[in-house]
Amino acid sequence: MSQWIVTLHEAKNIPFFKEAGAQEILLAVPFFSLRGAHLFMEEELGSLIKEIHACGLQASVNCTRLFMEDELDRLRAFLKLLKQLDVDHIYFADEGVLYEGLQLGMEQCFIYQPDTLITNAKDVAFYLNNGCRAVSLSREITLQEIKHIASQVSHCEMLVHGRFSIMHSRRPLLSSYFGFIGKEQAIKDRRDLTLQESTRSARMPIIEDENGTHVFSEYTLQSIAQINELRDAGIERFRIDSIFHDDAWALAALRTYQNVLNGTLQAQEVAFSWSEQKDESYSEGFYYTKTTLVK
Predict the structure, then answer these.
(1) DSSP SS3 for 84
(2) How far apart are CA 142 and CA 136, in angstroms?
(3) Which end of the chain is more exposed for a tag (fewer CB within 10 A), N or C?
């Protein structure tokens, strides 16, 4: 049975996600979470997790920061808090998070999400054998490659809908640039800025926050035409990320996927209608295109 994970902007929408077919809510907090759709304060986590559990959903927390040596005590305290709050899953990209969590007896609580790194079944098996509950596959591999991985191992997760990061630097690149040209500009935490390359017309969202600078895909990934194949291939967990959007957008996407899976909507028709939208650039990403050129 497939598991649907959605990011959250407002607590009042938790019951609507349950009604729309979600099984898990992913929360983000300052400092610990990279590229969270919406940041909640640590003090809010207790009440949010209680509300999520009360609706019969699982609660997950984004802890994908890469931690420096002097930040480990803060990480340990955060993991202890999450254990006390009975969080179901913790997303991480730094193996140190897994190590510290295992010292607290939090086996099978962790989901490895390293963005581009997981491209084969052996890596998935390695992390599953070392205490992870699931592993998130790279978005830059083809549908055929994804299906092959899923045929070899279980507990695979995929981002199927939303923008994703294509570059992250710990440096404040935007602030440094505007400082260099001598222009004062309010930059930090803005989500309305885009970057355009001189050789391309598409614009890529860019964010500078306390974790550095993040550049996102020029399109919104959508997987409507592939969702039945992905489910049938054995992918167990599907994630919708609503960064640059809101809960209404995520709810609409979730309902659409559920209707395609149950046969109420035709996948190809929905995928085509989305590709025709003028206010959003949707793409199937690398499902049919390899990231390397063979000469």
Answers:
(1) helix
(2) 14
(3) C
> pLDDT band at 279, cuts 50/70/90?
confident
Are 9 and 246 contacting, i.e. CB atoms less than 8 angstroms apart? yes
Of all helices (H) and strands (E), which one includes residue 267?
helix 267-275
Instruction: At 220, list the tokens.
Output: 């919104």
Distance separating alpha carbons of residues 115 and 283, to the nearest angstrom: 18
241/5 Cα distance (integer angstroms): 9
Characterize the bridge pairing of strands 58-63 and 156-161. unpaired
- Rounded-to-integer distance, Cα 92 and Cα 217, Å: 21
Strand-pairing partners, residue 157, are 136, 237
pTM over 0.90: yes
For residue 185 the two structure tokens come to: 């500009």
Residue carrying the six token digits 């202890």: 80
Backbone angles phi, psi at 20, to 5 degrees: -80, -10
Three-class secondary structure of residue 233 per DSSP: helix
Those residues whose C-beta lies under 8 Å from the C-beta of residue 63, and which sit 6 or more positions away, are: 32, 33, 75, 78, 79, 82, 90, 91, 92, 97
Alpha-carbon distance of 212 to 187, in angstroms, equals 12
Closest among 229, 205, 56, 42 to 142, alpha carbons compared: 229
Which has the minimum average pLDDT: 94-98, 144-148, 267-271, 272-276?
272-276
